[in-house]
Amino acid sequence: MILSDRASVLTEKTLADTVRGPQQQIYRLRILATSDIHAHVMPYDYAADRPLEAAGLARLMTLIRRARAEVANSITLDNGDFIEGSPLGELTAIGGRLPTGRRHPVVAAMNAVGYDAVGLGNHEFGYGVAFLERALADAAFPVLSANIARRLGETPCQDEFFTAPTLMLERSVTNDAGRSALLKIGVLSLLPQQVETWERKHLAGRLRTRDEVGAAAAWAADLRRRGADLVVALCHSGIGGESVGLQPDNAALQVARLGDVDVVIAGHTHRLFPGTGISRTGEIDPAAGKICGKPAVEPGFRGSHLGIIDLELVFRDGRWTVRGSESRLEPVALRDGKGEFVARVGIDPEVERSVAACHARTVKYVRRPIGRADRALNSYFAPVLPGPMMDLIHAAQLSWLTTVAGAAGLSHLPRLSAASPFKFGGLAGACNFTRIAAGDILLHHIHDLYPFPNSIRAVRVTGARMRDWLERAVSQYRQILPGGGDQPLLHGEARPYDFDTVAGLSYDVDLGAPARHDPDGSLVRPGASRIRNLRFQGAAVAATQEFLLVTNNFRAGGGGNYPELPTDSVIAEPLALCTTVLRHFVESGANIGLPPQCDWRLTGVPPGTALWFDTHTDATAHLHEALPLRVEVVGPTPLRFLRCRIVF
What we know:
- By secondary structure, this protein is α+β, with helices and mostly antiparallel strands.
C-alpha cells in the first residue's frame, strides 16, 4: 500500500505495545534492487544476434520471485536507465513517439515484475520528454525523481515536480516470534545532474535539475519529518571517491554520508557492489557491501545481477534502527569450467509474454543487410594500434561533421572526430569484443560497433582542450618501468568506453611517463603529460588553435570525467543518435575499405621490454592485422581471454 504524504501509520504507544521484550524486537526486511536494465528484457544480445545468458530482466524476474518467497517482508526497487540502451528500445522509439495504444515493452515487462518504486536515470530522456511521459503513462508502479523538475523553486521541496520526488511505503513486518508491526519506508530517487547537459536538446526549456546531494539531504529530512522509519536512496550514480576534477555522477558516497539516509542503491556506472571492482577506503567496504557503515548495492547492468539487502531492525527508545545488515548480489549466470556463462535460472514466462511480439520484431529488424565491408572489423588490438573498426566510426562521424560545418559556415576550421573502441574485454568479460567478418554489414553490426545510445554532437575546441582530452584518454595505460620484464599494458580497471582516440590528429603516447589521471578520470598529477608530438597535418598543434570536433552528448558534457565543454562551444546538437549517423554512412554505399583515419602510436617503452594484454581467442587468426607490432600469443587465461605480448 502506498501512503499519502501526510498519512499516519502507528503511534509509538501502539507500536511499543505490539513489540514487547528484547527477544522479540528483531524484525527483518529484504530490499531487492535492480539497475541499468537498458531495455534488455530478454536474455538476448541484439548487437551480436545471439542469446546472452548473463543478462535480461526475464531471467532476473525468476531470481526476484525466489528471493521474495524466501522471506516474509520485502520490497522491490529499480534504480533507473530502463527505457534506452538496446535495439528493442530504439525500435520502439523510432519517430520519437510511442504509437497510440501500444505499451512500451520495457514498461510492460516492469509491470509484470511488480516494482514497489522505480527511479529515473539519465537514459530515460534520450528519446525526448514527451516520449518518456507517454511510456510511463502505462506504468503500474510509482516513478520517482527528487532532483529533476519542471520548474525549480527556492528549495528542493518547493520544486514543481516532473514525477513524485519521494514515496512512503507502509509494510507490516513480522519478527521471529510471529509478532507484526508497521514500518514506514521512505524512498527517494536521484539522477546525475549532468543529464541537463547531456540531454540539453530534449530538456532545455522543459526540465531543470538540482545537485544530487543537496536534493537528497532536503528530501531525506522531509521524509523523516513525515514519519519515515527507514529511508532508502535510489541513487543513479556511482560509488566513486572524491577527487579533484570529478563530476557528481559518482555521488553515492556523498549521499550515504547523510544522516537521514539508511540504505543506498547505486547505479549508472554498471559496476558490481559488493565486489572486487571497487577499491576499499575508510568509508567504502566492498567486501561487506557498506558505504559509511550503511548497507548498499550496485547490481551491474542489463539485468546481470539482483541486489539483495537483508536488514535486521529493532524498535527501541521510540524509534526503529538498523541492528544489522547483509548486502549481496545474485547473478543470473555463472561461468562453467570452460569459462562460458551458464544461466542459473530460467526465463520468467510472464515477463517473456509481455515482450514476445516486440522481441520478435527486433530480431527481424537487426538482421537486415545495410552495406558491405571489404575487411574484418574487430576490436582485438584496439588499445595497441589504430585499426579498420575505428576508421569506420571516425569516417562516418567526419562525414556528418563536414555537412554540419558547411551549414554553419565553419568549413574553414579543421575537423576532428573522437570515439572509443567500446568493446574490448575488461570487466565485461571475454565475449566483450566487436567481431565483424568481411562481407555483409547487418543492422545489428551497427549496435555492435556503437553499443551506447548516445546522440551526436559538434563542438568548437582548442588545441589545449584536445591535449587535455587525450591525456584523459590514455590514463587507461599503466606506466611502464625500465628493467621490469614483462609488464601489463592496461590497468585492471581500464574501461574501453573511456579510451577515446581522435582522428585528424597525429600523436605519440609515452608509456614511460606517469599518467595525469587515474583510470576513472581522477586528476592526480596535474603537471604530468604522456601526449607527445601532437600534430595536425604535420604541424605542431598550438594551444589556441581552433578545431571542430564531432563527439557524443555524453562526452561533450564531461561524461567519463573528460573535460566538460562550455555550452557555447556546441555548434550542432541534433536529436540523431550516433548509431543513426553510422547506419546512414554505411547505407550510403560509402567505401568501408577506408584509408586510415587515426594516426597514433605507443612509445616510451625500453627496448626488449614486453607488454602483455588480454584479447579475444579469435585474435590468433588476425595477428597480421597488428603489424608492424610484434604480437606473440602467450596462451589462454582462466577467464577465457587470450593473452598476447608485444615485444618492443
